[in-house]
């Protein structure tokens, strides 16, 4: 097997693995129960899948221009996707999007689906964050 054939197989393998990761992220967006889990799928699996696909492109098209373009695209993905995911989760939290009962640990004390909290329970909360057990948990 020649070196060119090995490079082609590696590049195509990276494209396949990256495509599977992006497909997994898409499946997670459809199947996961709440906005927080969907955000996790969209940011982690999709970003990693796209980076692996772009690395496959670098391996298959190793010209200086394409390598530079793909490396810039990878860097932008790695810097912007986590920020976007955080902002989506923060917006969901501020709009009181419910958390699925399947989540066993909740540091923020978010309302769960089917949770019937009355006004007396909400009296200890203010605009600065969510109170859990009498303690302030994070700024808004």
Automatic annotation (TrEMBL):
Sequence intervals crossing the membrane: 12-30, 42-61
Membrane is among the record's keywords: yes
Keywords from the named record: Membrane, Transmembrane, Transmembrane helix
Composition skew (Acidic residues), residue ranges: 116-128
Sequence segments annotated as region (Disordered): 101-140
Pfam families listed in its UniProt record: PhaG_MnhG_YufB
Basic and acidic residues composition-biased segments: 103-115
GO MF assignments: sodium:proton antiporter activity
InterPro entries in the cross-refs: PhaG_MnhG_YufB
Keyword Zinc: no
Family: Belongs to the CPA3 antiporters (TC 2.A.63) subunit G family.
Protein's name in the database: Cation:proton antiporter
Native source organism of the sequence: Pseudokineococcus marinus
């Amino acid at each position: 097997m020649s070196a060119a054939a090995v490079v082609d197989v590696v590049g195509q393998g990276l494209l396949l693995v990256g495509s599977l990761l992006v497909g997994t992220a898409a499946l997670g967006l459809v199947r996961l129960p709440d906005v927080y889990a969907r955000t996790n799928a969209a940011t982690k699996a999709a970003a990693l899948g796209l980076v692996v696909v772009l690395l496959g492109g670098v391996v298959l098209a190793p010209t200086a221009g394409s390598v530079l373009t793909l490396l810039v695209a990878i860097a932008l993905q790695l810097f912007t996707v986590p920020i976007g995911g955080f902002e989506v989760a923060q917006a969901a939290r501020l709009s009181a999007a419910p958390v699925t009962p399947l989540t066993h640990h909740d540091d923020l004390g978010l309302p769960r689906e089917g949770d019937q909290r009355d006004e007396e329970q909400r009296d200890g909360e203010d605009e600065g964050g969510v109170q859990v057990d009498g303690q302030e948990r994070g700024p808004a």
